[in-house]
Amino acid sequence: MPNLHNVAIIGCGLIGQKRAQSLRGCRLVGCCDILAERAKQLAGKFPGAEIWTDWRVAASHPGVDIVVVATTPNLLASIAQAAAQTGKHVLIEKPGARKASELDGVLRESQRTGSRVRVGFNHRYHRSLQQASKVIASGALGELMYVRGRYGHGGRLGYDQEWRRHAPISGGGELLDQGVHLIDLARLFLGDFSEITGHIATYFWDMPVEDNAFLLLKTEAGKTAFLHASWTEWKNKFSVEISGRNGKLDATGLGGSYGTEKLTFYRMLPCMGPPETTIWEYPMADNSWELEFDEFLEDIRLERDPVPGIANTQAVLRVVEKVYRDSTR
What is the distance in angstroms between the CA of the first residue and the CA of the last residue of the chain? Predict the structure, then answer.
């Protein structure tokens, strides 16, 4: 396969547009959306890009090497499976699917054809989380004990009338929306969770899906994640705290309305008391989308399994499904 890959984007909404701007070293050759005007608007920014309204055309087009799937959750897995079936590499937007089992076919086809499939948990590639991973890898934090994560926004006028209110399309509410990012990050730092408990509630929005989710997750070793995802966080918030025996990391902000991205390292001193504090601030534009796609190109070049890929995503979705099942008892 040539170094300059040809990419098709299926789903030309906000996330599809972000993905289109992040295709460094590739050529966007086609834009697909059920709304032709939306596909046309995105394609207009990339000379020569074709316009499609049928995702099957994009997923099987012989001139396409990589398919980026940025549709509503009900279509993610079926489109990804069709693309993998023809040997195309696939980047699926999170949450990857509505349920873990929907990805079984994607896994089967990717193994058959050698297609590389990555799922877009781009928060791993934010500068603050990248730096946090470096600090942890250095051993400076010591043995990790727990993660405390909060992520939320307040919606907008008419939010309760959008597609996300319909569970057959969305698969669920805020837990599947922003909550999966928190679960993915908690798993990244602590590992697999063997005990899963949680509570979902709809406090404000007139929806049949949840606008708040509270999770308590434990590994076999007892390491714990306490996570809260909310659509009633009237001032947008992102905060992930990672605590170890020798100190704590606090990643806050995502830029824009979430505030300046920042990582604070509180290093415990031998005498304890007030910690030694180091702060990294990242006021520049978010480049996580570009870094993530660069990593995907390396997956393809090296013929390696992407991480996060299907297995990681299915593990995240099983956490979601367990909380949803328990909430209906």
Answer: 51
